[in-house]
Amino acid sequence: MAARMGGLLFRYISLLLLKNRTLGRVTEEMARRRGAATCIAYGGRRIAFDEFNRAVNRRANLFRALGVQRGETVALLMENRPEFLETLAGLAKLGAVTAAINTHLTGAPLIHCLDISGAKRVVAGRECLQQLNDALPRLQSLRNDGIFVDTSGENGPAMHAGCQDLDALLDGAGEENPPPVKLSSHDLLMYIFTSGTTGMPKAARITHARLFSGGYAMGYYGLHLGRDDVVYNALPLYHSNGLLIAFGSSIVNGCTLALSRHFSASRFWEEVTGSGATTFIYIGEILRYLMNAPAGPYDRAHQVTRVLGNGLRPDIWIPFQQRFGIPHIREFYLSTEGNAATLNMDDVPGSVGKKILRSMNLPIVRYDLETEGYLKDAKGFCVRCAPGEAGEMLGQIKATSKFEGYTNPEDTAKKILRDVFRNGDAYFKTGDLLKADARGYHYFVDRIGDTFRWKGENVSTQEVQEIVSGYPGVHVVNVFGVPIPGAEGRAGMAALMLDPGASFAPDAFYRFAEERLPAYARPAFVRIVQTLEVTGTYKLKKTELQKTGFDPSLVKDALYYRDERARTFSPVTQDVFLEIHGQRIRF
Q1: Contact 146, 97 (CB under 8 A)
Q2: What is the CATH number of the domain that holds 38?
Q3: Beta partners for 307?
Q4: Which of 370, 383, 401, 557 has the fewest CB atoms within 10 Å distance of its CB?
Q5: Are residues 86 and 173 in the same domain?
């Protein structure tokens, strides 16, 4: 059945691409077809499909009048609210490209993302204005008249002298569909930023086709969405799960998106129940948060029958289903920019399923973590893993499974592996270890390299090291991830070698990390070391540091943990270690 559906899906998506559908055209199409039906439910508001299209048109017509051209990039820094989607779709109608900026970024990472996007204009929600104001003195690329602030009843700091009130400008904008721009489904829709495996965030190129393939593959095929369904989403819209899958599924299938401003474990099920949601999109960490929350009256009052997402670890899979009465979990494997995709349609606990399309070639090859290289056969080609053997998954690059790459060609080239099984072939390097059983079901094992996942985000150790190196008195810093009982992914740990005569100031370092790093990238632990070992090529060694972790019985150096209650870094004693392992201290 799954194979037959996969074939149908392939033909359906092929037909879709031949139609050259774009977000702007589908927004207008759904306004005609669905009219007064609810497109977006947000707070107490219910926005109909035709109303959404009119709001989109106001933004499109305004930006057209302001001179935004096809192919121009406009940055968007805004938390979850309908105006985010109205801006995205409005710019899409003009053929402009939206750079969706992570709203947790501040300082250097924020400036980096704005710079590499090439954006000359930015639309910022007033709720994000402070971090933009702080970055403006170091931003040289923005036009003097290119900063637009969407107030929309939001509270926030006063607008910078050069900012324009977007809401005031929209008052005079027309609601008619703007003149059509000749676009293909293969034109760029937006950039979504991803840490990748090393370095600062990279801008992944997202086409209109990728939005629609995600919406149909995950929404139509994975969740069997119909017009009466309601997709609840509390994930950020700058995140691929929130935008490409949640919004993509709702808009292309003509059903309702119930949008939450932020994820909250305490109000999650109440919002899900109140919205009438029949499904929701997750990342594994939020399901663990829900499991850790106390029982409540809405735990089983909802109408959800299936959920879809990634990162759900096997240990809470069945307990989650049993506690909340969710019959079907659709766990998938897919990266923001990658061409390797699997989906679990058969309720196999712990599995990310089988490849979505039969045409996909997703080999798992042997990878040596010590040498950070691929094991080769006598002919110099990669070696496929046996069933049950973990290795790196690759995605063959071809017409039906493209890799669109990043804004930086060098970053794109680094993710392509050539001459894998024969001379001239090319594969996308996922950077992830997976294994597959004899039946073809895949299982996620871990990420390769320095990057680790924490709170649903990829944390680049190099990025954190660069920022922490700026702390006064730090000579060398080595950042890595350590597992914590009861938590998904790995928490960050920073081993600091200080300058001679310098000392560690827990309160000041806490404030430094809070000001310079997004919440998910702030070290949960700090270890003060006398020396840091390096390899022959001067790469910092992490293995031994990771093995000892934050166990005070194994570590003789000074150890600290991020104490959120005291807003400082407090010593890790044996009692504290036991509290963390007993999940009485959480991060």
Answers
A1: no
A2: 3.40.50.12780
A3: 280, 329
A4: 370
A5: yes
